[in-house]
Amino acid sequence: MPLTIRDVAKRAMVSVGSVSNVLNNRDSVKPSVRAKVEKAIEDLGYHPNRRAQLLARKPNPVLSFVLSNRELYDPFHSRILEGVSKYCEDSGFFVLFSKLHYAASETVGRLQLPAAVRTNGMSECVLLAGVNYPNLIEALEQQNIPHILFANNLVSPAPMGVSDQVLFDDVAAARNATRYLIELGHEAIWYIGDTALPWFERRYQGYLAAMREAKLKPRAQTAAISDDRFVNGFRWASSIVKAKQPLTAIFAATDEVAYGCWECLQQLSIGVPDQVSLIGFDDQRGPYKGLGLTTVRVEAETIGIEMAKMAIEKIRSTEKQQPQVVVPTVLMKRGTCQPPPDNPGRVPVSPRDAR
């Protein structure tokens, strides 16, 4: 049986109300009583029920948004935070922002959680964005800290269930994008993306499914050359052209890779989409004005809204776990795709340009 506030009260030889006052940081608690309760909590290894604490708090409860292993200026996760903030403002909740850098190899007991997360009663639920690992999830669960996960960027060797998480379907989105190129008449379609990253691996699996469904030969560059995705796209595209590989279309794992490919093709005087069609993923703003990149739009702000909505429902509900929410994606058909040229399969490139 899980420990309760009554067990703490019995151990400290004080009333249940006194324990509640300590857990909620009431100023009226005598130092001697606080010391007894804190020692009992430590001796028992008790972790308070955050949902119960909420009922005793004053108005304007708080959610903690934790950005793990990502920089503040990451555009995708910034849009998730915008969605969280918008929904919380409309719902009367405050949002505390924290950054967290940790390794997958860090033991659960040594993980240093942000103050907004580890301080009892400060926040009712934690929203996890960025790149996360199972050890953080385990640490939160051990301390009975409610949390909602953006699941696409969870790096885990095994599935971790489908509750308390919001995500979009990488595989289906990639499959639909590749099908669009096939429907236009393309056959020599390349996937470009670093499959060492699980989200790019899932997109590769979606690409493979569409190619196999159409009985077409898969073609891919999947090993990272650089930490810079734009550079990866540029070099990967250059290597394909230099090797005179069949090529009429590219499905890039992310817009940054797509823009790198586009820059390379432009420098080689290869027309997009006249000679090579191009699709990206994420729908981020790029360097090219006028001709828009065909891409998979991921509604990051909607992901944030759904995370905040789920967290508030989790706080208010008697249900311990909330069902998974899948946010739909949209293929934005813009100016970088068209049917293949009359001589599909090879892009004419002079030896001078193949560098």
TrEMBL record:
Stretches assigned to the HTH lacI-type domain: 3-57
Transcription regulation as UniProt keyword: yes
Alphabetized InterPro entries for the sequence: HTH_LacI (IPR000843), LacI/GalR-like_sensor (IPR046335), Lambda_DNA-bd_dom_sf (IPR010982), Peripla_BP_I (IPR028082)
One GO MF term: DNA-binding transcription factor activity
Protein name: Transcriptional regulator, LacI family
Keywords attached to this entry: DNA-binding, Transcription, Transcription regulation
Segments for region (Disordered): 334-355
